């Protein structure tokens, strides 16, 4: 035992990232669709002196690096993007809708819900701020606290960090008394576990902010997630919190169960590989963060609260495998107590899952081979029960889960590709709207050195950039033969993409009084947009804004 000052807060780690470190993304040009991440400024001073609208925000790619760097350059054929697989089905033109151009509704809704839930705050909340964490919101759905897992009542809060603005989860163990400073230091190695199937741990400390002595564990926050217990063992009360995601019941597809097994096994590989043990793999402490995506959620806590338990690491790691077996048994039986009547539960598995599921669960639940038994298949005896051998036996399932993951990744990349188009076009639209119809700037545009044109006329209705206004009409204000407005999204996207690419294609722009026709290429239009925008920037600087 070590003497501990109970009024002092103990941290797992007092070393913090310098909050004053320069935000390297400051120099990113939001309007420059071809800006490259490598061109981002690296010092605060540089960042603040950068024109955020310039084609080259750093000014680094000047004449010393590239020939003709200052000359107008058109992009390659950005409007001729070819979709990456998986390919959409062969829809006819009239069957295509706005949905084909943008992120799928279901994904958009999901992301928006998550963002909304993450930003939720409770007005006049009585929960105190803790260290840098404020705006606490309790995530527990029941006041009934189960003390049997940690030995202390535990509460879970969502909170925002005042240091980095990110949202985190704080797990509080009420009335926890730290008797050994080393106990809280045992959280340190957990911070180095970077596994997609473990909820990342950031910090641990004690606090008296709640009026007692509490242990706080800071982890990642996964909005709209719920535990496997909430998903499979509870009914409708959760519905409102999870926005209509109902508690699942009935038969769980075998592929989903294998998916859980593979994910938790890969989490255990990372944990055991670092010389640690998960110690708590139970339905209420496995988080379902999106469809079929699970993460271990209570890691590190047992290492603190049972620091002096005296159990050896091999023993704890073997127990992880047994706990995983019990978890899958309970979920597959749709009952939190299925492990208590193992025989009956295994019979159900045999009936419901004719494949290798039973074999796998049995292997996990079987006690360790006794010391002295041969430990390798070549020695003709039972294989040693550890995570590596478990993974070796799961190879076929890994392959199929991996394949599903690749498909999901392809779909997301495809969606991202479509959104990339949207973000380029938004930047272009913003530029166009800055430029179009600004007669008030006629007199304030400075004459660029060497320019022969009269700047005051360049912004006039009949000036040099008149065709930009006509282009806006051409894109957005078209009418059909009967004078009815045409609202064709494909036409708008087609025109804007060609403008962004500076294509050589020519279009005929007709004046509003239908007396004049201007034939211009997208390349000329693009040049016009760029130079008008640069003039605007100069005018802005001149006025000190
Ligand atoms: N990292 C996290 N991100 C988002 N939500 C979380 C996170 N951790 C826990 N939650 C949610 O907080 C709630 C409380 O979690 P907790 O682990 O206490 O489960 P519980 O069902 O209350 O279990 P117990 O009965 O053991 O207290 C659950 O609804 C869980 O989904």
UniProtKB/TrEMBL annotation:
Homodimer. Forms a heterotrimer with a catalytic subunit PAN2 to form the poly(A)-nuclease (PAN) deadenylation complex. Interacts (via PAM-2 motif) with poly(A)-binding protein PAB1 (via PABC domain), conferring substrate specificity of the enzyme complex. GO terms for cellular component: P-body; PAN complex. This is PAN2-PAN3 deadenylation complex subunit PAN3. The gene is PAN3. GO terms for biological process: mRNA processing; nuclear-transcribed mRNA poly(A) tail shortening. Residues 396-434 form a coiled coil. It holds the Pfam family Pan3_CK. It comes from Lophiostoma macrostomum CBS 122681. PANTHER family: DEADENYLATION COMPLEX SUBUNIT PAN3, PAN2-PAN3 DEADENYLATION COMPLEX SUBUNIT PAN3. The keyword Repeat does not apply. It is found in: Cytoplasm. Residues 435-545 are annotated as: Knob domain. InterPro entries: Kinase-like_dom_sf, PAN3, Pan3_CK. The N-terminal zinc finger binds to poly(A) RNA. Regulatory subunit of the poly(A)-nuclease (PAN) deadenylation complex, one of two cytoplasmic mRNA deadenylases involved in mRNA turnover. PAN specifically shortens poly(A) tails of RNA and the activity is stimulated by poly(A)-binding protein PAB1. PAN deadenylation is followed by rapid degradation of the shortened mRNA tails by the CCR4-NOT complex. Deadenylated mRNAs are then degraded by two alternative mechanisms, namely exosome-mediated 3'-5' exonucleolytic degradation, or deadenlyation-dependent mRNA decaping and subsequent 5'-3' exonucleolytic degradation by XRN1. GO terms for molecular function: ATP binding; poly(A) binding; zinc ion binding. ATP binds at residues 171, 220-227, 284-285.
């Amino acid at each position: 035992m070590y003497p501990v000052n109970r009024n002092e807060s103990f941290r797992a780690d007092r070393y913090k990232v310098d909050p004053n470190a320069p935000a390297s993304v400051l120099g990113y040009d939001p309007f420059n669709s071809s800006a490259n991440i490598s061109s981002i400024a690296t010092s605060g001073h540089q960042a603040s002196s950068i024109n955020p609208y310039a084609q080259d925000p750093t000014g680094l790619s000047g004449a010393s690096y590239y020939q003709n760097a200052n000359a107008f350059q058109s992009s390659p054929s950005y409007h001729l993007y070819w979709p990456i697989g998986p390919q959409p089905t062969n829809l006819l033109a009239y069957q295509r809708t706005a949905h084909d151009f943008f992120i799928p509704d279901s994904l958009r809704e999901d992301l928006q819900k998550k963002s909304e839930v993450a930003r939720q705050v409770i007005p006049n909340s009585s929960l105190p701020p803790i260290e840098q964490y404020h705006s606490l919101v309790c995530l527990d759905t029941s006041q009934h606290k189960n003390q049997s897992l940690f030995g202390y009542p535990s509460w879970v809060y969502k909170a925002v960090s005042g240091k980095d603005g990110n949202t985190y989860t704080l797990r509080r163990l009420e009335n926890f008394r730290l008797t050994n400073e080393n106990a809280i230091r045992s959280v340190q190695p957990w911070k180095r576990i970077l596994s997609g199937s473990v909820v990342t741990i950031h910090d641990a400390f004690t606090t008296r902010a709640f009026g007692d002595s509490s242990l706080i564990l800071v982890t990642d926050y996964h909005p709209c997630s719920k535990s496997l217990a909430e998903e499979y063992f509870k009914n409708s009360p959760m519905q409102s919190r999870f926005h209509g995601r109902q508690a699942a019941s009935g038969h769980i597809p075998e592929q989903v169960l294998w998916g859980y097994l593979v994910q938790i096994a890969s989490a255990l590989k990372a944990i055991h590989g670092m010389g640690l043990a998960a110690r708590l793999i139970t339905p209420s402490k496995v988080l379902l963060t999106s469809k079929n995506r699970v993460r271990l959620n209570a890691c590190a806590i047992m290492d603190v609260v049972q620091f002096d338990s005296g159990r050896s690491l091999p023993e704890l790691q073997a127990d992880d495998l047994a706990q995983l077996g019990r978890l899958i048994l309970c979920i597959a039986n749709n009952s939190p107590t299925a492990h208590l009547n193992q025989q009956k539960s295994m019979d159900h598995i045999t009936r419901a899952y004719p494949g290798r599921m039973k074999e796998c669960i049995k292997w996990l639940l079987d006690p360790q081979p006794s010391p002295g038994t041969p430990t390798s298949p070549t020695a003709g005896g039972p294989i040693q029960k550890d995570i590596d051998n478990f993974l070796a036996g799961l190879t076929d399932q890994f392959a199929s889960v991996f394949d599903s993951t690749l498909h999901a990744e392809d779909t997301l990349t495809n969606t991202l590709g479509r959104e990339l188009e949207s973000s380029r076009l938004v930047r272009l639209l913003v530029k166009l709207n800055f430029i179009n119809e600004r007669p008030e700037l006629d007199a304030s545009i400075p004459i660029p050195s060497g320019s022969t044109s009269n700047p005051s006329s360049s912004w006039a209705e009949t000036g040099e950039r008149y065709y930009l206004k006509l282009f806006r009409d051409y894109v957005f204000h078209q009418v059909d033969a009967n004078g009815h407005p045409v609202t064709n999204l494909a036409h708008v996207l087609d025109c804007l993409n060609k403008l962004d690419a500076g294509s050589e294609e020519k279009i005929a722009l007709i004046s509003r009084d239908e007396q004049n026709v201007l034939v211009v290429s997208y390349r000329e239009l693009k040049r016009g947009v760029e130079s008008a925008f640069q003039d605007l920037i100069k005018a802005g600087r001149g006025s000190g804004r």
